[in-house]
Prior knowledge:
- By secondary structure, the protein is α/β, with parallel strands linked by helices.
- The chain contains 14 helices and 22 strands.
- The strands form six sheets. Strands 13-12-9-14-17-18-20-21 form an eight-stranded mixed beta sheet, sandwiched between helices. It has a six-stranded parallel beta sheet with strand order 3-2-1-4-5-6, with helices on both faces. A two-stranded antiparallel ribbon has the order 7-8.
- The chain is globular.
Amino acid sequence: MIPVLIGKHVVLGVTGSIACYKALDLASKLTQAGALVEVIMTHGASQFVTPLAFRSLTHRQVTTSLSCPQSEHSIEHVALAEKADVVVVAPATAHCIAKAALGLADDPLTTTLLATQAPIIIAPAMDGHMYQNPATQHNLEKLHARGMTIVGPDKGRLASGITGIGRLIETQQLIGHIRAILGRNGYLANKTIVISAGGTQEHIDPARMITNRSSGKMGYALAEAARDQGARTILISAPTSLSDPVAVQVIKVETALEMQQQVNQVASKAEALIMAAAVSDYRPKTTATRKLKKDSNSMDIELVKNPDILVETKGSMVKVGFAAESNDLIENAKLKLVQKGLDLIVANDITTPNGGFGTDTNKVVIISKNGVEENFPLMSKESVAHQILDRIRVLLDKFSPC
Ligand code: CTP
């Protein structure tokens, strides 16, 4: 479940493209995340996939015509337009985009697009030349000017066999856009949250480095959760294999010093700083410009201490740290809370099965500076992220003048 999607009416317009099969995945993932997905299919779409497929995935009626005899609503298109929290057209063909640009209303989807007050996302999918044709570009500009959000298309292999622009954007990216739009007026709207993620890399020579086992998943989950609550989110990321979250400003760094420099640039304007990164405590005193050779039986590398980013970042923002420990979890975490001048520390025992580096779950204790200690069961990193942000929200409410 994804909090910003739970109970939200997502009207999903599906038009006639081979990319319709991806809309099935989108409908399924949105439903699993807690959204109420109301599918409207054009005649063209039902040539590619059946309404039954969408009904089976969403457990809801699928609208295919303006007079839908089995509908619970008397005027279906208006009913869907009114109850929509967001309308998403994916895939959107050149034809559907042209009809929407002209304001035509000859099927349930175009009628809904005219009647709704909800935000609209258009995800084009078509042949590259059709997409690049000035007619399509002009139509998309018109829709954009009317306030619709155009996402994609991506470049890649198209159904025609050629490689070019025109692919429907990936489901996870599209869901990112839907989440960002649904959350934009959330509790953290107008707040800036800076989050660090991943394990920093300290270079020994051009081939080798000192790093750690952090996957970045916790920091990335925090960035998505902050964005979902409307925050202007800045993610300062050490190298990870994760995709950049949608609608988040991502700043890529490698070393602890680079991370500190970037945190310094942005943190002074932020309401909160969450250091989820695993920052290397030491770095090689010098980085060799050539690959070191194994010409002796032992080797010493002199290390020097990196600055403590949390300690050295000054300002009135809410500061949150993590304490990944293998022993004496609470004692160590409380010490760091005090020594680093934090408002909250998130302690986790890295020896807990499925609770350490690289997993999708985490088992944490959140300790606040006033001594409150909250012990959570094993949860998804997304759920942990929401718990942390809920507490930051409360702290920000306390600080802000009425
Ligand atoms: N941290 C930081 N700068 C550093 C090291 C850590 O800002 N140079 C932050 C981490 O991002 C984390 C918190 O401090 O939020 C605690 O990091 P951790 O690695 O658990 O502790 P350290 O302070 O490095 O102490 P130790 O390694 O001795 O446990």
